[in-house]
Amino acid sequence: MRLSSLLTLACAITAFILSILSLLAGDKRTFLQDTEILTLNISRLGHGSLFTSSSDSGLLSGLSSTIQQDINDIIGDATTDIASLLGLPDFFNVHATDYCQGDYSPNSTVHHAKHNVTHCSKSTLGFHFQPTKIVQDLLPDGITLDDIHWPSDITNAEHTIKVVSRIMVIFYIIGIVLSGVAMFTAAAGIFTNGRLSAFFNWLVDVLAFVTLGVASAVATAVMVIATNRINKYTDQIGIASSKGGKFLAMTWAATAVMLLASFVSLVQCCVGRPNRAKRYGGKDGY
Fold first, then answer.
1. What is the model's pTM?
2. In the prediction, which pLDDT does 278 show?
3. How far apart are CA 284 and CA 68, in angstroms?
4. To bridge 171 with a disulfide, which of 98, 145, 208, 215 should be the other Cys (CB 3.0-4.6 Å)?
């Protein structure tokens, strides 16, 4: 009996749960919304240096005369949510398989404002975030992306994000499957003493560690690339992006526990443990 396999079993179970949560976070409006890959904040749209009440005739002329006057009055007021006047949400929470949108309460200028999620897209494994198309579809008639100075750099980055997002999901799925297999091999390893079973357990653990590590690395890359691209335009048009710290902690924790399981399995494989059958001249157990 190999009691050290209890540790590898615990690691495999932990990795399995954390990797599933990383993949499915935000699947519903009330499910792990604070575990996003990144948050795109467009609540300050219209407050950047490219907007002035005199120069943005395209933005102003697309709205009704009443709203035009409102925007002329408030375009320099940092406390006003111009995005809401355009019918846009305040933020988008981007997850691995979908995105959710909502508004800040009472408003976006309040420190630690409450996130009210109002809608989530359909969750699919082939999901990739397309902020340009989403914002364009939400804009009222008469207002274009050019009117709000939407950066073409973000549009150009979407193709790269599409490719790496799909790679990320594929590796998450493989990692989840392998960590699930690792649970069974670890459970079997509790009742066996042979090096062959330890080697097989180590092999599964290593593969799970590598695939979850790749998924976590790709997710981190998506987070960093998208955030850096978006935050280049914070001062100009008022949009901003923030990284999902809880998501990072969860996905890398899943990777770390599989690394620990791999190390324990390697020790089991190298050290082995003499069993009763060998002691009395019998055959080695597997």
1. 0.79
2. 47
3. 84
4. 215
